[in-house]
Automatic annotation (TrEMBL):
Superkingdom of origin organism: Bacteria
Listed InterPro entries: DUF4166 (IPR025311)
Lineage: Bacteria, Bacillati, Bacillota, Bacilli, Bacillales
Protein name: DUF4166 domain-containing protein
Residue span(s) of domain DUF4166: 15-198
């Protein structure tokens, strides 16, 4: 059973059938997709040094653009601890550079959240809350967060969090998945947003 199905319970079946298929993720059978991000926008210019550093951790990046080719791969695997983990690999193929935005997800069943370690090696941790929209789309909202410094995890006050909102759906007319991601901070404003579509690769 995928971590997302376990967490959503009966609500998992309220997802669009294509999203159920996408998030089932049997062990050893990754989901792979390819598409285009119609819009990618990053934060203010003074944030560029941090975003440039984040590139080294396969996290955020400083580039913005339109109609940027995109690939995604989600792999489900068992950890030595016995937990099930989903490894996220997202690539944005700009003309000059390819940027990654990777993550490692497990669940905390008692608290009812996804535990999201962002970057590779991970730079930030965030709780994620999942819910199903009225139209069968998946909504993801971030909660408490921590900055990771080696073996230390430093809780972030709400003013310093990157508040994440994700909307993923399926467009039956074009036969593709839709994605919109917004990352904002109460002080800075927009840190990154991207949106677009992708389709599953067969096999």
């Amino acid at each position: 059973m995928t971590i997302y199905k376990e967490l959503l319970g009966e609500d998992f079946h309220k997802l669009h059938p294509k999203l159920q298929e996408r998030y089932m993720l049997p062990l050893g059978q990754p989901f792979q997709g390819t598409g285009t991000m119609s819009k990618i926008e990053t934060g203010p210019a003074w944030l560029k040094p941090f975003l440039t550093y984040a590139v080294r951790r396969k996290f955020l990046f400083p580039e913005s653009g339109k109609d940027v080719p995109f690939t995604i791969k989600n792999s489900c695997r068992l950890l030595q601890s016995g937990e099930t983990e989903v490894y996220w690999e997202r690539s944005f193929l700009f003309k000059e550079e390819t940027r990654q935005f990777n993550a490692f997800m497990t669940i905390d069943a008692e608290r009812g959240v996804v535990k999201d370690y962002l970057g590779e090696p991970s730079l930030f941790y965030s709780d994620l809350n999942l819910s199903v929209n009225h139209d069968g789309g998946l909504h993801i909202q971030s909660g408490s967060q921590r900055f990771l410094a080696g073996s230390f995890e430093i809780p972030l006050p709400s003013l310093f969090r990157g508040e994440v909102a994700v909307e993923e759906g399926y467009d039956e007319v074009c036969g593709c998945y839709t994605i919109k991601v917004d990352i904002n901070n109460k002080l800075i404003g927009r840190m990154m947003t991207y949106e677009g579509t992708f389709t599953a690769l067969s096999g």
